[in-house]
Amino acid sequence: MSTAELQSADPVTHDVPELVVGFDLDMTLIDSRPGIQAVWDLLVAETGVPIDTDLVVSRLGPPLTWEMANWFPADQVDAMVSRYREVYPAHAITGSLPLPGVAESLAAVRALRGRTVVVSAKYTPSVKLHLDHLRLDVDEPVGDLHGAEKGTALREHQATIYVGDHTADIDGAKAAGAVAVSVATGPFSADELRAYGADVVLNDLTEFPAWLDAYVLEQRLEALMARLSGYEKLVVAFSGGADSAFLLAAAARAIGPANVVAATAVSPSLPVAELEPAARFADSLGVRHVTPHTHEMDREGYQANAGDRCYFCKAELVETLQPIADEFGIEAIATGTNADDAIAGFRPGIRAAFERGAITPLRDARLTKAQIREASRGWGLETSDKPAAACLSSRIAYGIRITPNLLVRVDRAEQAVRDLLTPYGVQNVRVRDLGESASIEIDADLLSRVDLAALVDAVRAQGFTAAAVDPRGFRSGSMNERLANPDRYR
């Protein structure tokens, strides 16, 4: 059966909801007071009505009709609202500025694989104009909603957090069952917002990224531990890398080390230097460590080294671990796939593991690579800052048939480069085998500091006829850039 025929949908299930963060606009994301005041000043000039525009911009938040009713008779309010909205784009947009911390807050949501929605009482086209003008990275703008009405849009977009500066924003969050995060950048003080019922009060958005990171990590770790606690025993496919090491430590905490088996597959594709640290780490946790030999090299699909090579490798791994799980009476095999892996777009190995019943607790808890490293530091794990170490076959250009000799050559070449760069605190080294020549990738910040010719000589000494240092530096998965038709294997 071909790989294409083996493909099946991987129904993604998660133990925590998708992160969706809602934001108010005026005085939460942007200081719109100068622009809004300019529009009201224009209305004063046109109508002669003595409007205290300083007072108006000091109490932004409620719908425009409410404010307009303070200055015009009821039968003129609709007309004045229409005039306000007519002149707003020309007078209010360019005068409004982002508040401190806005770009960082939106980026923090993105880094956690989340979505953003702006829910505002402002006229929807005006909301879009502000966001577009300031190039704020927001997924969905929603306007014309105030107070508890905002809960409708927040629920529709499944927002679990809503950030605003007004007590009415707290009403909106509560109506949606979302966490009410208040920033004291609007008309209410921190004490007033807290007294009204905000769940979290921040001085401004510069404090939001740190709060969000800590809050989301806590939620996702709780989900991970709850999932792991549902298993009596577990086999963890333990490569020795940061992800599988964290999963192994989490499993040991959740169900006890005596109920966890760490399985490190030994094969020509495993760098020799990885095995001893893996054994030491497992021993430090008190879990049983087994080292079964896998034989992916016997699989034609693996040796052929097309874009689906990882499929055959992961299939071999899970099929090798299943008898071990059966021997110990263990119901589940877990891999260290994380949330970033799952959306990387090129992970045929994930599909192979799924088809064979392996579970992915880190992905299911939506834990990103950065979060795994942060949590690992918090737990004191020595693997927290360990560089990514993909299998040696990932260094061989697609289309070049994989042999044990090629893997040994790459392993020795990388170790030679790493030895030369150890005094510089190198993190990432890759020697990409392009046939008779090699491409050397190292941390980009080292490119101008080290003797590149010495690196080339060290690699050529391992049997390459030519070598060159990639001026772009280390890039995870750079071999995929050389694949002619990656979509075929996604």
What is the fold's blueprint, element by element?
Blueprint: H1 3-6, E1 20-23, E2 30-31, H2 33-47, H3 53-57, H4 64-68, H5 74-91, E3 97-98, H6 102-111, E4 115-119, H7 124-134, E5 140-142, H8 150-156, E6 161-164, H9 167-176, E7 179-183, H10 190-196, E8 200-202, H11 208-229, E9 234-237, H12 242-255, E10 260-263, H13 272-285, E11 288-290, H14 300-304, H15 309-327, E12 333-334, H16 339-343, H17 348-355, H18 361-364, H19 369-378, H20 404-421, E13 429-433, E14 437-442, H21 452-460, E15 466-469
Parallel strand pairs: 1-4, 1-6, 4-5, 6-7, 7-8, 9-10, 9-12, 10-11, 14-15
Antiparallel strand pairs: 2-3, 13-14
What is the CATH class name of the largest domain?
Answer: Alpha Beta
| Overall number of structural domains | 4
Biggest sheet, in brief?
A: 6 strands, parallel
Low-confidence stretches: 1-10
Strand content: 5-15%
Estimate the global geometry from the Cα principal axes: elongated
Characterise this structure:
GO terms for molecular function: sulfurtransferase activity. Keywords: Transferase. It comes from Kribbella qitaiheensis. This protein is α/β, with parallel strands linked by helices and 490 residues long. The chain has four domains: 20-29 and 99-216, Rossmann fold; 30-93, Orthogonal Bundle (DNA polymerase, domain 1); 231-379, HUPs (Rossmann fold), CATH 3.40.50.620; 392-488, Alpha-Beta Plaits (2-Layer Sandwich). The chain has helices spanning 3-6, 33-47, 53-57, 64-68, 74-91, 102-111, 124-134, 150-156, 167-176, 190-196, 208-229, 242-255, 272-285, 300-304, 309-327, 339-343, 348-355, 361-364, 369-378, 404-421, 452-460; strands at residues 20-23, 30-31, 97-98, 115-119, 140-142, 161-164, 179-183, 200-202, 234-237, 260-263, 288-290, 333-334, 429-433, 437-442, 466-469. The strands form four sheets. It has a six-stranded parallel beta sheet, sandwiched between helices. Helix 13 (272-285) links the parallel strand 10 and strand 11 (288-290). The longest helix has 22 residues, at 208-229. The protein is elongated and about 90 Å long. The two termini are 18 Å apart.
